[in-house]
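Q: Structure for this?
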Amino acid sequence: GESVGLHLPTLSVQEGDNSIINCAYSNSASDYFIWYKQESGKGPQFIIDIRSNMDKRQGQRVTVLLNKTVKHLSLQIAATQPGDSAVYFCAENKDGNQFYFGTGTSLTVIP
Amino acid sequence: NAGVTQTPKFRILKIGQSMTLQCAQDMNHNYMYWYRQDPGMGLKLIYYSVGAGITDKGEVPNGYNVSRSTTEDFPLRLELAAPSQTSVYFCASSYQGRAFFGQGTRLTVV
């Protein structure tokens, strides 16, 4: 199967600081990447996506960076807030049918 | 707009029992998926469907069956429940590559 892994299983940041969550993927044929946020007891929610023809994409307080050379993806959250505490998953999609998820990084925001 | 709706939210099964996890979406998406999520882990794809009448196996299909008779519904069937199937099950649908998830079904097999 596919391998989408995250470098750090847990991350703690001070409220107001920026957060960076990393993800490595193994399939160079993957052409679409998505970041999801999962709060306790809920299903994953879409945050931001990026296609392989892009290096960077920005949303509201979030930025996704894609480095295809080293097959690395990162999610940057600006001015992290307590409501950002959750598990963050990256997922890759290479044929439009299946999404492959990593283990996830648990982000804790310290007030 | 309900999105993806899963029922039930919780269920306890005895070993060997069977049950169907229901999933319905009202967004007219062709693609639908079933995932399981074990504690502290990511999501593993069980089955998926690219449209009514079409289903295919994912990474961990053993012990499960699905059907897709309509665009809206994608039920997941467990025929002989085993403790290894204790997990949280998520149904999702997708459009243009973006997946929308239900709230999950927490299943315990004892």
